[in-house]
Design a protein that fits this description.
about 170 residues; globular
């Protein structure tokens, strides 16, 4: 089973990812624009079998690849059909995070001592909105969980993910 964590900067992706890496002693990939974000690259990362324990945690993946190329003016490496193929992986749970409060994300970024200029705020706001919209369109799939991190704490999110992983592994 794979766990993919998606969301804007400062939404809690790495915190959640590290919990599962430590608990399951599993492999981890943090995807970026330099990663192999092609369909073949994504499918290679999604190998594994349904019913196995957690064997891979991926921080940023196909949802981000549908969002960030538009925001940063680069060519996307997945088209919509390829995106749908990755989202249909039977052995993967997708967790999509967003915040109903952009300010929460800005505060977290600032707390980390990172860039908080107007351009950075604009990019965070736009990506946050995009993750929410894509998440809303996908949340009815059995393998997708959507969380508003301004309303649900990370401990509760982790517990819900653990319960869902257990449920999916039993099926």
């Amino acid at each position: 089973m794979n766990l993919v964590i998606e969301g804007p900067k400062a939404s809690g992706k790495s915190t959640i990812s590290h919990h599962f890496i430590e608990k399951y002693l599993t492999t981890y990939d943090h995807m970026s624009s330099d990663s192999d974000n092609s369909l073949k690259g994504h499918l290679n990362l999604l190998k594994g079998k349904k019913g196995e324990s957690l064997n891979h945690v991926i921080d940023r993946f196909s949802v981000g690849e549908m969002i960030y190329p538009n925001l940063y003016g680069r060519e996307g490496k997945l088209n919509l059909d390829e995106f749908n193929v990755t989202m249909s992986s039977e052995n993967t749970l997708y967790v999509i995070l967003y915040s109903s409060s952009d300010q929460l994300l800005f505060d977290r970024i600032e707390w980390r001592g990172r860039n908080t200029d107007d351009e950075a705020h604009d990019l965070v706001s736009k990506s946050n909105f995009a993750f929410k919209m894509i998440g809303e369109s996908l949340k009815y799939r059995e393998n997708v969980l959507l969380f508003d991190v301004a309303k649900v704490g990370l401990k509760e999110i982790i517990k819900i993910i653990e319960d869902k992983l257990e449920e999916l592994n039993r099926c």
